[in-house]
Amino acid sequence: MSGWLRRNRWFLVALAVLIPTALVVSLTPRFLPYLETQPQAETVALGELVRYAGADIELTDLETLDGDEWNAPQGADIVVATLAIRVVDPPEFTSCEITLVASAKTGYEREWTADSFTDSDYDIPDRFETLCVLNEAGTYDLQLTFLVPRGEVADAVVQFSASAALPRVLRLS
Which residues, in sequence order, are CB contacts of 83 under 8 Å at separation 6+? Predict the structure, then answer.
């Protein structure tokens, strides 16, 4: 066996170098465009105004309410996010998605969608909108509620994405 290895050592070295090189060369043109389509988060502090998808967006309040005080489902808290939105240059066709993102104790990010009808006594005041609309010029305040597991959300972040501005997304905290 060692005679065979000695006779073929240069071919084996060439294979050890050429196979990974061939993989890198063939997969790189497919991987780079994939990276460009992935969300690129921009962090925005509470109270800071930012232009996004033709609108000025500001997170004005983000608070966690005790679920027991508001009669939420057992083991749940309510996170309330309030945003001020002024649509200046409305895009023709767009949809927006707002989620709550938090790092779990395990180190992974968890994500929750807004609850239109929560199973709690907390009601969004009538002066607030509950749906994100960016295709009409105007100003409105948006308030969303999220049901989250009790004690799991310490540093909540509101992630705001609009189809007209992708892959750029906002992380408001």
Answer: 57, 58, 59, 60, 98, 141, 142, 143, 144, 158, 160, 172
